[in-house]
Design a protein that fits this description.
Strand content: 35-45%
Number of helices: 2
CATH class: Mainly Beta
Strand order of the largest sheet: 1-2-10-7-12-5
CATH architecture: Sandwich
Structural class: mainly beta
Helix content: under 10%
Distance between the termini: 32 Å
Radius of gyration: 16 Å
Order of helices and strands: EEEEHEEEEEEEEEH
Number of strands: 13
CATH topology: Jelly Rolls
Number of domains: 1
Length: 182
């Protein structure tokens, strides 16, 4: 596996070695020893999966307080633009974001530590997306930053009228009004 830390400290792109032949392919999608060697000890406790159609934008989500989550995400099927926004007030990269295309072709994964808001946009006709998380979902700690917050300025690369958004995502808070991490 190749681990590449991104311009925002703590966010990593992980690229597995893929062994392909006429039968298909084999790869290790997660190896605790390699992960800990590069990133550190993260106790993943749950795997989640979602399926979405083209134009669905989910995010920018996070959990606050004791229920914050680190995530290891990947596209099992299709293509997504995956985005992590640094919402740690004390960080020199506060308010900045990383955007990475994850797909079933490139097999890339993105590790997002606690202290970040996360979202993704489906670029293919449909996508199956996997989240490995280190904390349980707690509805009372659920938070969302508006996907179009102008101070963050995420370039989603799609016209707003092509987006499919939930009521929750339409009602996300501006970064200036959000609950942040220290």
């Amino acid at each position: 596996m190749k681990f590449t830390e991104q311009k925002i400290q703590g966010v990593w792109v992980i690229e597995p070695k893929v062994f392909a032949d006429e039968r298909g392919y084999f790869m290790e999608s997660y190896k605790k020893e390699s992960f800990e060697e590069h990133i550190g000890n993260v106790d993943f406790i749950q795997d989640n999966e979602s399926k979405s159609v083209r134009g669905v934008l989910r995010g920018l989500h996070y959990q606050t307080g004791n229920y914050s989550q680190a995530k290891l995400v990947r596209a099992l099927q299709g293509r997504v633009l995956d985005v992590a926004v640094d919402i740690r007030k004390s960080s020199k990269t506060f308010g900045q974001y990383i955007a990475v295309e994850l797909s079933d072709d490139n097999k890339k994964q993105l590790y997002i530590p606690r202290g970040f808001a996360h979202g993704f946009l489906v670029l293919s006709n449909e996508a199956v997306f996997s989240y490995k998380v280190d904390n349980v979902y707690a509805p009372s700690s659920d938070a969302s930053i508006l996907w179009s917050d102008p101070t963050i300025g995420v370039d989603w690369g799609i016209a707003e009228n092509e987006l499919i958004l939930s009521a929750k995502d339409k009602a996300g808070k501006l970064l200036s009004d959000a609950i942040l991490f220290d």
